[in-house]
Batch of 3 targets.
Target 1
Amino acid sequence: MQLPPLAAVAAFYFLMGLFSASLCVGVSLRPSFFRAKGATLYGVLMMIQYTWVLIVIAS
């Protein structure tokens, strides 16, 4: 089995990091846009916290 080129893997992780960071900034600037109907503020804050934990683990 041949591994993908290192540059392709690095570019993929870089783009996924940019996407995750932009999503987090979008949620922090307009949380009402991403909130499900009927969701409480506590639930939204926990979702943001778990998103950051996943980003840290993935990087």
Note: The chain has a mean pLDDT of 82.
Target 2
Amino acid sequence: MKRLFLLLLLLSVSALALNGCKDATARVACDPEAVELLKQAVAASSKINYSGEVERVEQNPLSAEPDRVVFKSARDAEGRYRYEVLEPVERKGSFFVVAGGAPIFSKDFQTTWFRRKRKYRNFEFMIKNLDQLEKNYAIRFDGLDTVAGRATRVVDVQAAYPSLKRPSIRIWIDTETQRILGAERKAPTGEVTFKFAFRTIEINPTFEAHAFDPPAERKELNGRGGSKYNIERETLEGGIEQARKEFDFEVREPTFVPVGFELLKVRRLKTKHGEMCMLLYGDGLTGLSIKIHDVNKAPFPGSKKARKTQDSEKIHTKPFGFRTMYAQSFEKVRVLVTSELVEEEALRVLNSMGFSLE
């Protein structure tokens, strides 16, 4: 009888321990109302006509100090945008590289001042895929607040499983128009990597005629602070299989990707120095870029110091603002993994590339 009692006691303790583990890793449920509001906000924010003043801060890959910019932002009924930097007038390394305070013009988030079209990055920083976001993150309300004198509801987005180390984001949504008026994104470590908020905003304002017409002669800018590489980009609709047929180097696929990540696109990047294959993964909020190229034909050779690193099997680490790049050579190919994942996971992805199909 005593043995039976001890056995039952042991089973009860084991059951409690298992339940405790289950609770510790249980999925945090989404709030359906918060999910619906976020979907409405993402749709509304690219359709509402407005004029306002915005402050934006993000980590700058070229500086230890965050990149802060204050600018006027406006959208008209034809979907045309106008941005005018107020502070600073010129900032190298910033998305807003504007000499002399000249306005920037775009239409439907497609820039007209770059040599190659590039999407305005505001929402790219926040949400990459709503369906994936709902599947991998807990989307919940986090109270009420006021932004630019307007009432907002705050939506908080955290990893659905607390044990996963993922970025998080809080979004301030106008209760009247559902327009996003502010956001704050944090790294898995809790450090703020990007935030923006309207200081002032007017909905459906009246604009002067030709306020959104770009000047006939305007300086063309090229990328974040300019780039000496003329990059050709092509999405390979056939995915990895097409890439393996068309590239003259081995296109490897990681044997490990973090929980919730899916392959979204396969691209070809080409410069006069060479070409590389890019595999783009994501989980709805966090991106993961894997670039592969011939170790002897680096598309971006850079400085002499960087070229020496191309041939090294040592892991090379380089910060890019809120992201970090890890690079390593495996036999005849070099692999570069760039993400804001914690180092342990990013290196695990990189290490899983260290195999050959031959």
Note: The chain has two domains: 32-203, 232-351.
Target 3
Amino acid sequence: MASVEILPSLDRCIESTARDEFRKAVEGYMAAGCRNKDLEERISILKAFLEQSDFAELRTRSEKHLVEGKRVKFMICGRGGSVDCQMMVLGKAQL
């Protein structure tokens, strides 16, 4: 099962970060001549995540930790056209 890691910040919320990652994956796929299975899978997972997620709820869950100076990571796993999203709080960000 493939997964995608998203690291939002106070400057870039989970939705903006996921959209950036999706755009980068599509650009990389096109640059590779549309022949990269890993990027195809990444694009598929991110597309499903962007279409299916409740970003207001994800922002609420993550931002309360981000404002405390903690780092947050989302692991998005693809499962047959749908996605499973797990949030992890990693502790204080290093300056």
Note: Residues 3-92 form one domain.
